[in-house]
Amino acid sequence: MRVGNIYRQTDPKQAAIALDAACNGGEQSGCDRLAALYLGDSLEIDYPRAAALYGKACDGGYLPACGHLAQLRFRSEPGVEARTDEERTAAVKLLERACEAKDGDACGFLGAVHFVPIHGTKNQARGSELLAEGCSLDSEWSCKHATEMWRTADLTALGNIKEHERTARIEGFVKRQQKLREAACEDTGLFCNVLEGVRASTARARLGELCRTRNHLASCNDLAFMLERGEQGDKDFAGAALLFEIACKGGIGGACYELAALHKFGSGMAKDLRKSFSLMERSCALGFAQGCDVLGSMYLDAEGAQRDVSRSIAVRRRACGWHDRNACRTLGVWLISHDGEEVPEGEGMREGAERLREACAGDSSPSCLDYALLHDKGWGVPRDPKKARETAQLACDRGDREACGWLKNPALHTPKWVKEREQRLAKRKARGAATEEPR
């Protein structure tokens, strides 16, 4: 188990081997930590595998894993989402078990469930209490969300307290969150780059120390971001590239993505599309959804590799399945735009409509306008002008100006891809009519 923890940052694959041995040897916390490797950048994402490991640890008596499993059930990830009332009730009970065992994250998440609600009857008073309890149990996540939810909750829901009492509680959450972030920065480098005040000025030095002396990959990655963006100092693309490379080799998909972008645009180095493509492939393989989306574009545009439409669709499907709404949108628009040309007629329309529906449901306002236009045109869905306006209004209400403009004047605010598809359809119709003319 100790070996697994050492390798978690320096060599995730070795960590997986060590933690798997600990898990199979009956050390349930090893199962829990191994599960976490399958949810982030450390190993390729495998939600069912992570859920099974959390379940094993929970059943074995390691109660924090019960909370982790429940949170995974509520995250709507493919293959593990709690879809029925019975499954959601079971997930809530898992959170309650973990919270009773004084797991701060579980208490906070249970509070969020009551507050939103994700399941059951909305109970802001109970939700606020649980978030506060999670914060007191050293959960940075709970402190953050307690601050947000106590600001928005009705005073009556908080027990008819006075406004100054609410303000005092919120200040307490903020101070507690700051202390937890400072402690995490000292211990692991986490949050160093977002700390406020005097301590934040030392973030570069602290992250550099942790990267060099402990080979702490997250610290290397965070410091690289700071150098790339010029946070708390000058920009240093070359220095960022070196650190991103360390983190990428260690298994952090986001670092591979950033390094690929530096090579693609020649930031601080010579432009190298082949190298960029190779790094983007690794980013995608490590489960970084945005990397898969960009890789899809590189396949289509033949950037660093031969053009490959089928691979482009495949990697974007992967990213969309991981709830990358931009990937769902770009895939949906492309499939509809190329229906009957580079993808089989009818199939592109049907899948494209479903991808845009998913993106819209995931709060991508531009996708809602795209989905509205499908109903307006009858592309991939039954033509329904009323449904089109309702969906566009949803996007407008979320702040999408193009959607608001389309509702007032469709001709001036129709997306370019829609006009281009209409032009292609007109040309195809004209060609068909020409072939049918008698000779």
From TrEMBL:
It comes from Sorangium atrum. Belongs to the hcp beta-lactamase family. This is Tetratricopeptide repeat protein. Residues 417-439 are annotated as: Disordered. InterPro entries: HcpB-like, Sel1-like, TPR-like_helical_dom_sf. The keyword Repeat applies. Keywords: Repeat.
